[in-house]
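Dear support,

I submitted the protein below through the web form. The confirmation email said the job was done, but the results page showed an empty box. After a refresh the structure appeared. I'm attaching both so you can tell me whether what I see now is the final result or a partial one.
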Amino acid sequence: MKEIKIKNFYVTKEKLTFISGPCVIENRDHTLFAAEELKKIFENHDFNFIFKSSFDKANRSSIESFRGPGLDEGLKILEEVRREFDLAVTTDIHLPNQAESVKDVVDLIQIPAFLCRQTDILVAAAETNKPVNVKKGQFMSPFEMKNVVDKLISKGNDHIILTDRGTTFGYNNLITDFRAIPIMQSFGFPVCFDASHSTQLPGGNTKTSSGQREFIPYLTKAAVAVGADLIFIESHNDPKNAKSDAKTVYAFDDLKILLKEVERIYKALKFEPIIC
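What the results page shows now:
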């Protein structure tokens, strides 16, 4: 597997990497608070950590939904997070021209699942030569993600991460097929499992997505046991009042508990002694 450099660490088989943060940038103060809290949480564990939040949720179900502060203001906030807390940062883009804007602020460019087949966006992200994390569309098989890899490599960028975030199962439902992890790993790049979005019930509330966040710990632990290289969990200090994905963002206090459980599984997989 190719090791991917993110800021001051590498994504490797030797150390699990987490991506976490509020789904959307709600405002400057909340984002800085969340970054500081999450940094404290992850400092208690031997995991790499990348802070994630979106400047614009362009794919919300309803025109009435909160989208975020926008590109310019959002990048200022993410730049402050990166500088103030010395954290690796990621965010998603929805248009090709946004790649050039984000490349000097973030350490990892994320491509949303709905846009994973859009060649222009993939090419624009690849041309920045930044690491690119592409989420597998809920409508795609893991085998088809090889085409995504080929598009990125065609521009000379092999700093690639692929993410599974569930697969469409009828209307308003997703299931997780854990075969996707080793299948996508066979392409030679790290694979991330998105535990929070995999519990979505897309459009389940008609104007917003519903979800079953109570299954996040089960899916997370299963993905770690299967061998995922990264885990993605959107998180929030007050999930029920989150401005995006309120049904699937994970509470900070619950994340603390889950990380302890994940650490035990990860150490067992590496045959390291577990200190109770």
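Response: this is the final, complete result; the empty box was a page-load delay. The chain has one domain: 4-269.
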